[in-house]
Amino acid sequence: MDTANQLASVGTFQVLKLPLGFIRVLEWLFAIFAFATCGGYSGQLRVSVDCMEKASSDLNIGIDFGYPFRLHQVSFEAPMCEAMRTERVFLTGDYSSSAEFFVTIAVFSFLYSLVASVVYVFFLNKYRENSQRPLIDFVVTVVFSFMWLVSSSAWAKALSDVKVATDPDEVQLLIPACKDPTNKCCSLHGPRWSGLNTSVVFGFLNFVLWAGNIWFVFKETSWHKGGSRLAGSAPDKQAGTFDQQPYNQGGFNQSGSYNTQGSFDQPSEYSQVGGPTSYSNQM
């Protein structure tokens, strides 16, 4: 308990209120939902085969399947409608690569979000002291956002193919006895897809979270801080260029006369060269 109390006192839980820490917690939770809804799925469909010979009929054939959706390995016993014999029928398709890729990205993003949240809470100062750590965090965030987009798109396409391959009407076409028009085959119920549909939604939500968090992680890097310093120093340089000696073409002396470069000596009385100097002389 003492260790836990010390960690709680040292931890800066205020970072969880900031977008940097809060989004990491959301990424951690949404990653759990993504791999839980996909990796924990199991479904069942049921079909019936009503043979012309009623004794050979099987009106309740259950077919179970689930993650990782290697449907070509899923089999069931179907009546041949001949002498009480049955045969093993396999579903078609292997969609394990897309499903496992999606779950792998979800698990790794869950682990990284958990580690990053712990670092933000208990080691935020050390995280910011070393310029390499925010850069690594930024690169990993970009990579995970891209991988979430790719894996979610691949899994969405694979899920649509799984729905087609496990459609009871399509499964009936795999049963040889159903190809005989004298026998009647019908579907009882199909799988429930709400869980897998939710996994696709959580996949794209994770992409939105990771892509949106790129900006907040980028603000912690030296790239953003260096650009902010350059942007802040530019106005200072411009202001410094105006703090020079003021521009003076001329000035006013204390006597009130305006002096420009190169003064002009003008007489106080108006006189013309060679002309009368006064009114009395004219008279």
TrEMBL record:
Keyword Nucleus: no
Alphabetical UniProt keywords: Glycoprotein, Membrane, Transmembrane, Transmembrane helix
Entry's Gene Ontology cellular component terms: synaptic vesicle membrane
Subcellular location per the Swiss-Prot or TrEMBL entry: Membrane
Residue intervals of the MARVEL domain: 15-222
Annotated stretches, region: Disordered: 253-283
Membrane topology term: Multi-pass membrane protein
Pfam family, one: MARVEL
Transmembrane segments: 21-42, 101-123, 135-156, 200-218
Domain of life: Eukaryota
Record family assignment: Belongs to the synaptophysin/synaptobrevin family.
Name under which the protein is recorded: MARVEL domain-containing protein
Biological source species: Poecilia mexicana
